[in-house]
Amino acid sequence: MKKVYILIIAASSVLDAMAQSAPGSAPNSFNDCKAFNCTSANAATCSTGLPNTTITFYEKQYVNNTGQGNNSTAAGAVWKFYNVATDKSNAGTPLQVNATITIENTYQAEVLDLDNNNAQDQNGNNSLTMRNLFSPTISADRILTGGNRVGYVQFRIRFYKNTLDGSSNKWDPKNYSDPIQLSDLNYVHYDIDGVSGSGRNSYELRETGVLNTLQTPAAVTANSNTELNAYSYSGDNANWKGYMGSACNRDHTSQCSQVVASFALRGAYSSVAFRMGYNYTGSGDGLNDGDVQDRLYASTFGCFTFPQPITLPVKLSSFSGSFNNNVSSLTWETKSEVNADRFEIERSTNASDYISAGRVTAQPRNNDKRYDFSDNLSSLNGNVFYYRLKMVDIDGKYNYSNVIVIRRDAGNNEEMSVIPNPAAHGSTVTIRITSSSAGRAEVRVIDLSGKIVFQQPSSLSAGTNSISVNNINLLRPGIYALQILHSGHVSTSKLNILQ
Fold first, then answer.
1. pLDDT band per the 50, 70, 90 thresholds, residue 366
2. How far apart are CA 57 and CA 302, in angstroms?
3. Model confidence over 247-259: pLDDT tens digits?
4. Same domain flag for 76 and 212
5. Does residue 297 fall inside a structural domain?
6. Could you tell me if residue 269 is inside a domain?
7. What span, in angstroms and rounded, lies between the C-alpha atoms of 143 and 305?
8. Does 386 share its domain with 461?
9. Residues 237 and 331 placed together within one structural domain of the fold
10. Domain-located, residue 469
11. For residue range 220-235, what is the model confidence (pLDDT) as tens digits?
12. Which of 117-131, 166-180, 194-208, 310-324 has the lowest mean pLDDT?
């Protein structure tokens, strides 16, 4: 495979202070075309100490039944990307990384094509480098005429460790279920340009590219000869910073440094969210041309380091939670602990961005241990909270548990529910159930012949409970009965596991 070099662009200045408005903020005056000069961005290499690693977006598959209306280019759609990077530095089996890209949100914009592998560079070449970029085609959600309009599509890339060998297994959900963190990622957004027209119906359409620097700290930079303009979004209580292009249309998908932005991420991440969009102004009938507003974007990730293999300090047998009187009560049990130091409890309100809620010290001298943690939510807004355990050993290495979901408003629902249902093969399933008393419980999965094919010990607290079901990936696709046995009572729900 041809080695691809990723640009770290030298900053000419720190981003200017931006006026805060929703949803986009731009400067009062603009950098404009640099006489269509082109300084190659591919000639630069990564910062000192970082390898020339590159994420390659080529082999992909749409995840069925995702996206609004089961639409592969609508908000909520998920795409798998196979073998986006491989670490061959170790003598053992190479570490292969897979990824998914989710269309998280759209605002006055729509995706026409998630990833165009026919993109050409500024010289008109469709090289392997171009085919390996993430190149979506994005348009405004309606014909642009007079007036002003801004829009964007928010994507999220997630990285996973490939766990199965062989090309026949490449799209198996198991290969997209074990998150992996990559350090020192550099996100590069190419070809941030635009288009304009003059006369009675004049218009300017400028492409935009931003990253949430509050959730993902990054150095946001452009080259000293840039045509780009500082740009931000602040309307959703976030800190999205990046650049907007000039109103000059460059041929094809340009990798010239004049229209390239760099986002050097600080830290290690298993997922990154980014936005690609447009900023439009028009008078009279304005653009009034649907073809011109369909814009091809291009980006990639590079210059990262792979994680070191680790031995898991803890084997978790169960993790569950309940809610009562504004308190989330979490319980987990371990089968064994090797050099375990602590459990860090992390909470999220959107299933993506987690903060620390507390910690519990491990007790590695004992086997089959049970731990409890209470999280007071009385000062927090919201109805849904996600929890996971960060299991840390004495050397600082760590691993994450499955995620459980606690609903503040679920106390009004006395019925047992299973989420998601249907569930993709290999995914994590969460049971929500309300109990009038505390005690031991057992989770059972029964096939259509009446045979118990899976059992998991658990416990229930008085109030609303959320139980993460482990090892669902061991079950074949099909229809099952999922039961919880507790204090002589049996609660049953249907469970549908998809291919």
1. low
2. 12
3. 888 888 888 888 9
4. yes
5. yes
6. yes
7. 43
8. yes
9. no
10. yes
11. 988 888 899 999 886 6
12. 310-324
Q: Which residues contact 459 (CB under 8 A, 6 or more apart)?
A: 318, 320, 331, 438, 439, 440, 441
What is the count of structural domains for the chain?
Answer: 2
Predicted local distance difference test score (pLDDT) of residue 278: 95
**190 CB-contact burial (10 Å; exposed 0-12 / middle 13-18 / buried 19+):** buried
* Residues 256 and 334 grouped into a single domain: no
- Measured in whole angstroms, the distance separating CA 371 from the mean position of its chain's CA atoms is 30
The pLDDT value given to residue 1 = 30
Cβ pair 319, 431 in contact under 8 A: no
User: Cα(197)–Cα(157) distance, rounded to whole angstroms?
Assistant: 35
Which strand (E) or helix (H) includes residue 129?
A: helix 128-131
CATH assignment at residue 440 = 2.60.40.2060
- Asked if residue 333 and residue 269 are part of one domain, the reply reads no
> Is a pLDDT exceeding 90 seen at residue 236?
no
Domain endpoint, select from 302, 334, 360: 302
Domain final residue pick, 272, 302, 332: 302
| Contact present, 432 and 372 (Cβ < 8 Å) | no
Counting every residue written for the chain, the total comes to 499
Residue among 461, 348, 339 nearest 394 (CA): 339
Distance between CA atoms of residues 11 and 241, nearest Å: 15
210 and 187 inside one domain: yes
Residues 318 and 298 in one domain: no
Which helix (H) or strand (E) segment holds residue 453: the answer is: strand 452-460
The type of residue at 209 is G
**Is 47 within a domain?**
no
Q: Identify whether the C-beta of residue 232 lies closer than 8 Å to the C-beta of residue 210.
A: yes
State whether residue 180 is helix, strand or coil. Answer: coil
Candidates 202, 191, 198, 208; CA nearest to 279 is 208
The domain in which residue 95 lies consists of 60-302
Strands (E), 266-306: 268-269, 271-282, 295-296, 298-302
In the chain, the amino acid numbered 466 is S
